[in-house]
Amino acid sequence: MIEPFHQNYSYTIYQHQLDYWTPTNIDGRWPRLTANGSTASTNNFGKDSDLYLFNGKYARLKNIQVGYSLPKELVSKLGLQRVRFFINAQNLLTLSKNSWIDPESSEFDSNMGGSANSARNYPTLKYYGGGLNIQF
Question: Could you report the per-residue pLDDT of 36-75, keeping only the tens digit for each?
């Protein structure tokens, strides 16, 4: 996600790309904006450089479930064997310096070789659920 206005991204520019070089912002993080395919764009994106390397460290709470089973003494008075309540969540929390991309995603399956991740994929969904298990 370093190429602003790339046609495959619907000519979008993202928040993290706004710190680009201009005559009034000479300390910008990114090179000046240019049209995709121009000579300046080739120089900016086509050369080996560590400018576009991102810190990929992250931590994610992928799946959590919390439950409580009612005491058997109480449940047996209701004519039941077991009653359990639970709640669960998936992708509840992700800690990453790169908030604009899912750190587990890849548009190239598991191949993160030559070119890594352009974030051209669906955002990671959070899931919340719960339930009740009753055994008669």
Answer: 666 655 555 556 667 667 788 999 999 999 999 999 999 9
Separation between Cα atoms, residue 65 and residue 80, nearest integer Å: 23
Tell me the HSE value of 43 on the side-chain side, using a 13 A CA sphere. Answer: 8
CA gap 123, 125 in Å, rounded: 6
- Residue 127 contacts residue 90 (beta carbons within 8 Å): yes
> Which of 61, 54, 116 has its CA nearest to residue 94?
61
Dihedral over alpha carbons 26, 31, 34, 40 (to 10 degrees):
110
Length reported for the chain: 136
